[in-house]
Amino acid sequence: MSGQVAFMQQLVAAFPELQDLYEAEVENNGEVLAHVIFGIGGGITDEVVSAYIEDSPEGLDWRRFLAFLDKHVGQGDKEVNVVIGTSFLWRLPWPTEPGYGLVDELPPRLHEMWSRIRPSG
């Protein structure tokens, strides 16, 4: 099993509210494509940004989600880091877009990676 597949399975186990999105993408693609699941419109990245904007106790716990990603960045799996960097951090809102404040909430390892990927914000 690839690092990306294991990561996605752990993510869905930790955040069951993402299970339907995950299963739909796996069914559509016939395999786990982490970049697609994170990055396509309505994907996980958009769900996290929406949860941040809404900040509802009933919604996705975006703080715990960021901590989950931060932990995985620290584990050093290059495949997983590429998914987190390109399909999550790169796709976060830009300074003029709603939800950009999420960038200020990034835990240390995620923030360091984000700063390398998008040094201009």
Notes on the structure:
The structure is a single chain. The protein is mostly helical and 121 residues long. It has one domain. 61% of the residues lie in helices and 0% in strands. It contains seven helices and no strands. The protein has helices spanning 3-14, 19-29, 34-39, 44-54, 62-73, 78-89, 108-117. It starts with a helix and ends with a helix. The mean pLDDT is 91.
The termini sit apart by 35 Å
Unreliable runs: none
The total of beta strands comes to: 0
Largest sheet: none
Global structural class = mainly alpha
Overall pLDDT level: 91
Helix content: 55-70%
Number of helical elements: 7
Structural shape: globular
Percentage beta strand: under 5%
**Roughly how many Å is the radius of gyration?**
13 Å
User: How many structural domains can be distinguished in the coordinates?
Assistant: 1
H/E series: HHHHHHH
